[in-house]
Amino acid sequence: MSDEDEFSAYQSLAEETEDHRWAFGTGFTDPLAGIDTSVPDGVDAGALAAYCLMLGDDALVYSHRLQQWMTRMPELEEETALANIALDLLGQARMLLARAGQAEGRGRDEDRLAFFRDEHEFRNVRLAEHADADFAELAGRLLVFSAWRLALFTRLAGSAGSAGSRDPVLAAIAAKGAKELAYHRDYAAQWVIRLGDGTPLSHDRMQAGLAAIWPLTGELFEAHPVAAALPGVAADPAELRAEVDAALGTVLAAATLDRPQAAALARVAGRSGRDGVHTEAFGYLLAELQSVARAHPDATW
Amino acid sequence: MVTAARDGVDPDTAAAREIAAAVPDPELPLLTVADLGILRDVSTEDGHLVVTITPTYSGCPALPEIAHDLRRRLGAAGFAEVTVRTALAPAWSSDWITAEGRRKLRAAGIAPPHPAGRNPGPVPLTLSISGTRRAPVACPRCGSADTTQTSAFGATACKALFRCESCREPFEYVKDI
C-alpha cells in the first residue's frame, strides 16, 4: 500500500467541499441515508416517532453523562471503555432521533431534536439523566441500564423464535445496538463484581451505589400509552423484567451484594421521564449539552 | 464484502467495484473496506453507480469519510454520479472480515476476531474480568495462548486490549461481534 493510499482518507477531509459542516452537531450525513424509511402500513407514525424519541433520548442523555466522566477516570483503560460506550450510545441516539424525525414528518432532523428541544420535551427515563456520585454508582447504573436496554433491543431485533419490531428500521437499529450493549453490560457486570466481592470498603460503597440508583429502576418496566399504541412495533416494558432480573440476580450473587429494597422514585402528577417530567439534575445536563449551539445556531466550520 | 460478479455485470461496474474495494478504512488503514466487510454492494441503477456500505458500530465516525473517499476516487476514475447508501441490516459482523483482512491484521500485530457466536434467546453474561467470551486469544507476536484481556475497549470501537503473559507484549484484538 502506498503512502498516498494510506492517507487519502484523511486528505479527502481537507479538500474544499461546498457543504460546510454545522459546528455543533454531526453535520455531515443523515445516519439513515439511503435506507427505506417509509413507515409500514398500519403503524401509527406519530406513536412511532414518540417511541423512537424515547429510546433515542435514553441513549443521548446517557451518553452525555458518560462523556462527563472523561478525564476523570483513574486509569486510561476505564476512560477508553467509557468513551467507547458513550460513542456506541451516541450512534444509537443519532439513528433513533433521525428515525423519530422522519416518522414525525415535520422536518426535524437529529440535530434539531438533540439541540433545540426543551427539558419537558425530552422523553428519556430518569435513570439516564442521573449524575453518578462515584464510580460505584456509575458501574451499578450502567449495569441496570445496559441489561434493560439489551433485553429491549433483543426483542425489537427479533430472533429465530420471535418476529422483532414491525418497523424494519427500528429492528435494524436494535439488532446493531444489541451487539454493542452486550459488551457494555459485561463491562459493568465485571466492575460490580470486582467492587462488590472486593474489600469491605469497596463492597460497602458498591452496595451504597446500587441503593442510590435503585429508586430510578422502577420506571424502566412501567407500561406507557406510546408503547401500547404500537403493537408488534414496540416492546412491552413489563415483559422485560424477568430477563433483566435474572441477569441482575446472577451478577449480584457473584458480587455478594444484596438487591436493594427501595421504593420507586415518585411520579409527578402521574408523570415521569417518559412524559417529560425530569429530575433537577437534568436541566443542568441539558444546558451543558445545548447552550453553545443555541447561542450560535448558524455557526459552521 | 463485494457481491460476487453476477451474470451481465458490465465492465464499468466491475471496474468501479475494483476501485471501491481498494478504499482504505480510515481507522484501520491497513485494511480496505472490502477486507473489513463493510463494502456491501456496487451496482448500477438507471445508469448511475450505487455503492452500499454498512457501519461496523452504531457510532462509527468513519462512515462519512469513507463515503467521501469513495466518491472522490470513483469521480477521479470518471464516475461522475455516485450514490453511497448505508445498509443497517443485516448488522455488520466481525465474521465478515475476509481471510486477506485477517492476514493483514495478524501481520500488523493485531489479533483477528474469533467467530462471533449466534446465541438464540437472551445474550449470556460474561462475568470473568480477564476472559473473552470464547476461546483464548493467541498472541499475534509469539503465538502463545497465555494472554490476558486488559480492557474490552480499545483505541477504536472494534478493538479490545490484551497482554501476552509469555512475551509480555501488549496487543490489540478485533472484537468478535
Instruction: Give the class of chain A from helix and strand content and strand pairing.
Output: mainly alpha
Shape of chain B: elongated
Q: Which pair of chains forms the biggest interface, and how many residues does each contribute?
A: A-B, 65 and 53 residues
Question: What best-fitting shape of chain A do the alpha-carbon axes yield?
Answer: globular
Structural domains of chain A: how many: 1
The number of strands of chain B is: 7
Top-tier CATH class of chain A: Mainly Alpha
CATH fold-level label of chain A: Ferritin
Unreliable runs of chain B, pLDDT <50, ≥5 residues? 1-6
* Largest sheet composition of chain B: 4 strands, mixed
Q: Can you tell me the CATH architecture of chain A?
A: Up-down Bundle
Helix content of chain B: 10-25%
Per CATH, the superfamily of the largest domain in chain B is Fe-S cluster assembly (FSCA)
Largest sheet of chain A: none
* Radius of gyration of chain B from CA coordinates: 18 Å
* Fraction in beta strands of chain B: 15-25%
Question: Which strand-content bin applies to the residues of chain A?
Answer: under 5%
Radius of gyration of chain A, rounded? 20 Å
